[in-house]
Amino acid sequence: MIMEMRNGVLKDVKVWPTIRFLMFMPTLSSGPIDRYRRFEADYEQVPDRQRYLDFVQSATWNIMLGFFYKFIVAYLISAKFLIPFKKAALLEGGIFNLPTLGVMYSYGLYLFFDFAGYSLFAIAISKFMGIDTPINFNKPFMAKNLKEFWNRWHMTLSFWFRDYVFMRLVLVLTRNKVFKNRNVTSGFAYMVDMLLMGFWHGVTWWYILYGFLHALVLIINDWWLRQKKQKNRDRKKSWFGTITK
After folding, report:
1. How many other C-beta atoms can be found within 10 angstroms of the C-beta atom of residue 38?
2. Which of 32, 67, 114, 139 would be a feasible disulfide site paired with 156, CB 3.0-4.6 Å?
3. CA gyration radius for the chain?
4. pLDDT score for 240
5. Residues 195-217: what's their mean pLDDT?
6. Whole-prediction pTM
7. Is 154 a catalytic residue?
């Protein structure tokens, strides 16, 4: 809100609407992270009967699916896989072992179903209140690469960091010509963006490492996509590419 006020996008901000937005009950605890302008537009425009009935239908489904995700699937993953894998990993010891790999994958799945289930509850309650809170997950484990994964996982958080950290940092670096190469600029912005996201999750070494590793893989992923794009261009320019086009 402060950034958008500075840019002149938000011009009429009052105390009570701001408090109402910040204290909105369904998303107060853990999100999804909404935007003031989007929320206020929803709040000011009361849905008509048909739209509200659609909200109720969608909200009912979200509650049922959220319950299934959080209290059945996440519970089973934790009880049947995560906890046994943790115990086995500790018994085997060492830096890395097969049960540790099991912990990694089972924890990732547990985290998704637990948080996605909670997010569905928040979205459902919002819809009962006439607010169309944005979705937070879109089949993240079906993503083709890490960049696409972050466009599907905790979407409201990743889009917030994209819009208010990554894009603004790229703009500042480009304007001031800090780096000559635009790929270096985006790589530096990825690193800052993901390290900040690590700090956001918690000021501990493993979250900072998590941010660093994700930034590193995003940079490699961008490099790989550029190489792939260039190879496709070269193939099309060749005599073989011209024949098969």
Report:
1. 14
2. 32
3. 22
4. 46
5. 93
6. 0.84
7. no
